[in-house]
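Handout, section B. The chain below has 325 residues.
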Amino acid sequence: MDKRDVVLALLDEEKALPYVPAAFFMHFGAAYRMGQTAIDRHLAYFRHTDMDFVKVQYEHEFPRIPEILRPTDWGKMPVYDAGFFAAPLEVVKGLVDAAKGEALVLMTLYSPFMCAGHATSDALVTAHLQEDPEAVKVGMEAITESLLNFVGACVDVGVDGFYASTQGGEAGRFVSDGSRIFEAYIKPYDLAVWEEIDAACQFSILHVCDYHRGYDDLTPFLDYPGQVVNASLDVGGETLTPRQMVACFGRPFMGGMERTGVVASGDQAQIGASVDEVLASAPDRFILGADCTVPGTTSWDDIRVAVDTAHAHTHAHAPQRPSER
């Protein structure tokens, strides 16, 4: 099996995986966000770490719109066509051309709610949805149309799928009616984008992002598409296990490592031991990874240790002898 075969085999319970796949992500800094330098940096990282798919970082946020000051101002949100996304599409195409023959190429995608925060701020879009969600809808609709343009353009250049993030359903984000606001004014736009992804792509990852806040409940995301789920194991004051995540979502899980934990700050012996501990009780259909993007200062060599340790485990998670590694 090549890397493509291994990752796709996660979706077929009749196929045995030769090893546990692994992938960790990071932003590469301002010098590597566009053009050939971004393509080269992604490829260097992919090959140095030996991770099992290429995940393209998205570095082209929606422009700030300072005129959006009140909920009724969301009508000023424009729709961006594929031309707006020319820079990230150049990176996607370069990586598809260079690496699709050896691994899946997945594009990072921020949700409509997250893009609304980029155009204003996380705090402002949250406050406006709390104050007058009906007025904000027109902006969410425009952003969703923009993202559908981007998704279609990525599919056209050959991307295999998406690493699609969601926010807005975290604990304590809204002062009141948080569940209702999420269900009526955030989730429908997530699902509109996911419908397009799911129709076009064979493999995508749902990322439930806790960058701003944690979650008390993952139930709102159970009906989201996505062949694999990536999320923090800390939910509602408890630390779940990868097996519990698989049972909850009914699909393979990616994670097990904290993004600012041992993989980012431990020595290589600690990293290997921590990975072994995670994999000793992990489910068969599992990708080792972090709960979100690891710090950009994380050593590529340290990430390679985590990936190598995962690759030394069979699909049944029995580690091979050191001589076989």
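Note. The radius of gyration is 19 Å. Compare this with the example in section A.
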